[in-house]
Amino acid sequence: MDITRTPTGAMDPRDALVARLTRSGHLLSPAVIDAFRATERHRFLPGVDREAAYAEEAVPIKHDGTGAMISCISAPSIVATQLEQLGAQPGHRVLEAGAATGYNAALLGRLVAPGGHVWTIDVDPDLVHGARQRLAGAGAANVTVVLGDGAAGLREHAPFDRVQFTVGAGDVPTGVLDQLAPGGRFVLPMRIRGSVSRSFAFERDGDTWRTVSSEMATFVPMREGALDDVRTLVRMAGEGDVHLETFGEQDVDRDAIRTVLGQPPAGAWTGVKFRRGAPFEWLYLYLACVLPNGLSRMPGSRPGFVPHFAWGSMAALDESSLAYLTIREGEDDAGRFWEIGVIGHGPRAARLAEQVVTEIRAWETGWGNTGPAPSFRMAVAGAREHLTAADPRFVVDKVHSRLVVDWPRTA
User: Fold this and answer.
1) Residue 92 and which of 20, 202, 306, 368 are 20 to 30 A apart at CA?
2) Alpha-carbon torsion 266, 272, 275, 278, what sign?
3) 404 phi, psi to nearest 5 deg
4) Which of these, 337, 329, 334, 330, lies nearest to 274 by C-alpha position?
5) Rounded to whole angstroms, how far apart are CA atoms 111 and 243?
6) What's the CA gap between 181 and 252, in Å, rounded?
7) Which residues are catalytic?
8) 302 with 242: CB under 8 angstroms?
């Protein structure tokens, strides 16, 4: 009898999930594969249909008074990616910031057994209570759920061999760094500028830190703690449901910009062509570094809004103006392509659109999708001033840290 099949002959959802994530390259190591196969994701998602629990979707579990999502279970591919980045081993002591329903902590508990222990922390008493119940029901005896601020860590249980943040940060939570054991690893989803975020796996390199892994990922931002990452959603006026993500470091007039999509557009095509399967992550990273306000997510739809993806677009901001990415399809001797364009709205629409077009062309010429991937270094406190880059645009200064992108040109 095939134990991976249900009585109807369909593959068990956990086995189907493992097969899918293995094929896609998100699951790599035998230990993480076994943890995924052994952990029942649906038991950590109350009220969610069993089949839906294993779909490639984030599942919201809490909203604020405005209806905005403030906690969720990440899509399975993101969970897998972070666990592969973390590299937790049997016997490790692990701190997780962002307990949610306890699903990721349950996976961690399996990875550090035997002999290891996981502490998972969350700011919401109801989430802490629910995670405790579900983890106890799953028999995760080596996981402790704590009410508190993940940005502060848990000094009383330090040092930790691994620290994992499953919530987004706008800066490095420096108080946690000295709670990491020698040779430890710290996984943090951090915004670079605007909405562009990556999950960084940092290890110490003398007085600074270097990445051993970096993957594009977006997480619900931290809140109600020492390192809140305040995100303000601007609902765009007029038809449709388009909204704009904005953050504290961006120079934007939120009252004025909400009406700009009703103003005449100014746009241009770049001549830069993406082929099937080409990633947008490196273009996003480049624009996040070189544009003063980075890029902001602008999801939704409305008449006249022609974003580069079905979910919406990424937009550059300049006070009361914005310029978002669009695409048009074509075919040449090399086959099918999608050319990137830029559409601006607002009093500085033409100038901002041209600035973004110029930078996209510069990225294609100097970096593009064919060159080596960048690596990253990070420093805090006094070590920041010693961390430099050949191109100063690839130095991103934050309140508590400095991030440097080491990205060799291809030409």
Assistant:
1) 20
2) negative
3) -120, 130
4) 337
5) 39
6) 41
7) 74
8) yes
